[in-house]
Amino acid sequence: MAKSSGPALKLNLPKLKPCDIDDCKSGVIKGLYHEMQCANCNGSGVVNAHTGEPVPEDLLIPAMAKTISHLKSEVRCLKEQLKRQAETDPNQRYPENMPTIAGGKFRMD
Ligand SMILES: [Zn+2]
């Protein structure tokens, strides 16, 4: 039997997903007169993606931090992609003051 002492070498952080309750907006449910903390997600707005259960508080903050960091890098990547696309997009070669017709730039072609 393997002996273990001290904390785990790696935190086993759960994957998060938005709370399943339709009325739950970021962990808050609006009643007729007052707001309540959502019982399904313990007011966090997210649940364990695999079990659908609320994430324990000690794992919630690092799991959210990991999710935020992942989303930040995704946003950075998409911004770079947009920038590259704008540089190569033929529509960007036309001046900004071209007339817009039917939701698109009228390019006379
Ligand atoms: Zn909820």
Tell me the quaternary state.
single chain
**Silhouette:** flat
Q: What does the radius of gyration come to?
A: 23 Å
Task: Give, in spatial order, the strands making up the sheet with the most strands.
Answer: 2-3-4
Structural class: alpha+beta
Distance linking N and C termini? 76 Å
Give the topology string: H per helix, E per strand.
EEEEEHEE
Helical content class = 25-40%
Annotation field: number of helices: 1
Bound molecules: zinc ion
Q: Average pLDDT across residues? A: 86
Number of strands: 7
Estimate what percentage of residues fall within beta strands: 15-25%
Summarize the main sheet.
3 strands, antiparallel
Low-confidence stretches: none
Could you name the key traits of this structure?
single chain, binds zinc ion, three-stranded antiparallel sheet, alpha+beta, 1 helix
Q: Can you describe what's shown?
A:
This protein has 109 residues and is an alpha+beta fold. It has one helix at residues 57-88; strands at residues 16-18, 24-25, 28-30, 35-37, 46-48, 100-101, 104-105. The chain has a domain at 16-90. Helices cover 29% and strands 17% of the residues. It has a three-stranded antiparallel β-sheet with strand order 2-3-4, with no helix packed on it. It has a two-stranded antiparallel sheet with strand order 1-5. It has a two-stranded antiparallel ribbon with strand order 6-7. The model has no long low-confidence stretch (mean pLDDT 86). It binds zinc ion. Residues 19, 21, 24, 27, 38, 40-41, 45 line the site of zinc ion.
